[in-house]
Design goal:
Blueprint (H helix, E strand, L loop, with lengths): L15 H7 L7 E5 L5 E5 L20 H15 L1
Antiparallel strand pairs: 1-2
């Protein structure tokens, strides 16, 4: 069982084995849930794919699949 202490500011350090188990890294967010029986659980906060909308600007020009394949092949030939 992992145990953590609460600081005077209400902060806790999540034990390393729990962070590894949940794949948590610095800056990640966790979500706390209170179950009907009073038990409190927490889990990594994940965003819905809709949260990514608008993250990238639309391209200035459209590129065909053929042009993409050609660029990939050209780039692959340069690395070889």
């Amino acid at each position: 069982m992992a145990i953590a202490s609460i600081t005077s500011k209400g902060q806790i350090t999540i034990p390393a084995d729990i962070r590894r188990h949940l794949s948590l890294n610095a800056g990640d967010k966790v979500e706390f849930l209170i179950e009907p029986n009073g038990k409190v659980c927490f889990m990594p906060q994940t965003n819905d794919v809709q949260a990514l909308k608008g993250l990238f600007k639309k391209p200035h020009k459209k590129v065909s699949i053929e042009a993409m394949h050609e660029a990939i092949a050209k780039r692959g030939a340069q690395k070889g």
